[in-house]
Amino acid sequence: MEKQYDYLIVGAGIYGATFACMAHRQGKRCLVIDKRNHLGGNIYCENIEGINVHKYGAHIFHTSNKKVWDFVNSIVEFNRYTNSPIANYKGKQYNLPFNMNTFYQMWGVLTPAEAQAKIEEQRQEALAKMKADGVTEPRNLEEQAQLLIGKDIYEILIKGYTEKQWGRKCSELPAFIIKRLPVRFVHDNNYFNDRFQGIPIGGFNKLIDGLLEGVDIRLNSDFFDDRKHWEQIADRILYTGKLDEYYGYRFGKLEYRTVRFEEEVLDMPNFQGNAVMNFTDADVPYTRIIEHKHFEMFGDDVYKCPKTVISREYSSEWKDGMEPYYSVNDEKNMSLYQQYRTLADQDANLILGGHLAEYKYYDMAPIVEKVMGLFE
Questions:
Q1: Where are the beta strands (DSSP E) in the chain?
Q2: pTM of structure
Q3: Which residue among 29, 123, 236, 257 is the active-site one?
Q4: How many CA atoms lie within 13 A of 230 on its CB side?
């Protein structure tokens, strides 16, 4: 019996939507299902008071690949948003990533040579401390960070934020989490080094809607509620959910970090003057505040909208029923994931894609680039 579809795509996030778009353009019959009541996965935006609110955390599209940039802009035009986060430590503000503005705010230094000398002095102090302990390689994130950037920046801008993010002391986290830190000896607050960055004009829903134009969609449809039915209607499955769930957790459950969002509508046009404010003090329970209007409103336009929407983000361990956000890529979890991956690789009709199915952190542009590559 001929199957109704060439592809069943489980999950309507950026991976599933891009895959559906590419397959549809090649004449393939696709059905996209999602257990949520909306498209877009974690890049979904809800319009509140005329502001596109990133419901599952801030997303900024950035890439140096012109082909990828041209492709997404062929779906919807992107704006000129530049990601320039601010760090707030005990009421003082510092520019991110670490650049000459940060070093002036931290030490009052005025030249790159002065900043380099200060960082090198503190790096040598960290190295001497490690040598006194009889080690030459950093044993944990704390030692790695101080070896890269010194004690002051580590303690003020890295330590508290990282410990809130991971729920563990930096001295207990593996060194590889911080392999390098962006350090610039120029006055440049642009967080990304990529050639292109921005937000779709009208929000990310416009991108997803454009990608899925002409594709069959079923929302409020959980693959696992009627698995036998879904498996019978398509030749192949693209699965973007949790891989351990796909195999019934037969080897055990993978671990994640999750984020809780505390959203607030404020009766003012401008709360913090910036889209992203990191709170690096351990005494502040949330990791950052997102003020959503700054992703799409610039200059005087900010004041044309009399209200603003903010989201405070609280990081915690994932438990059943919570949204899984960040994979815990330690030795134990990667070994467990590999067991599931070995099973999946034996199934010629199964394609895995996205941060859950591949158990890795993904930015949006590399996902689009990867899917484009599958169809070229």
A1: 5-10, 30-33, 45-48, 51-54, 61-63, 86-89, 92-95, 196-198, 216-218, 234-239, 256-266, 276-279, 288-291, 308-317, 326-327, 350-352
A2: 0.94
A3: 257
A4: 25
Out of 2, 180, 331, 376, the active site residue is: 180
Residue 313: active-site member: yes
User: What one-character DSSP code corresponds to residue 98?
Assistant: B
Average pLDDT over every residue of 149-163: 96
- Would you call 180 a catalytic residue per the annotation? yes
User: Would you say residue 1 has pLDDT above 80?
Assistant: no
pLDDT of 177: 83
**Mean pLDDT of all residues in the chain?**
96
Sign of CA dihedral 193, 359, 213, 296: negative
pLDDT digits (tens, 9 = 90+) for 43-101: 999 999 999 999 999 999 999 999 999 999 999 999 999 999 999 999 999 999 999 99
Q: Measured between alpha carbons, how far is 85 from 193 in angstroms, rounded to an integer?
A: 14
| Active-site residue flag, 257 | yes
Q: Residue count of the chain, please give it.
A: 376
Q: Which residue, chain included where needed, has tokens 């080690």?
A: 135
Output phi, psi for 304, to 5 deg: -75, -20
Phi, psi at 239, each rounded to 5°:
-115, 125
State what percent of residues in the chain have pLDDT above 70.
100
Catalytic residue among 288, 296, 340, 358: 288
Distance in angstroms (rounded) separating the CA atoms of residues 269 and 293 = 9
Residue of 6, 114, 363, 369 marked catalytic = 363
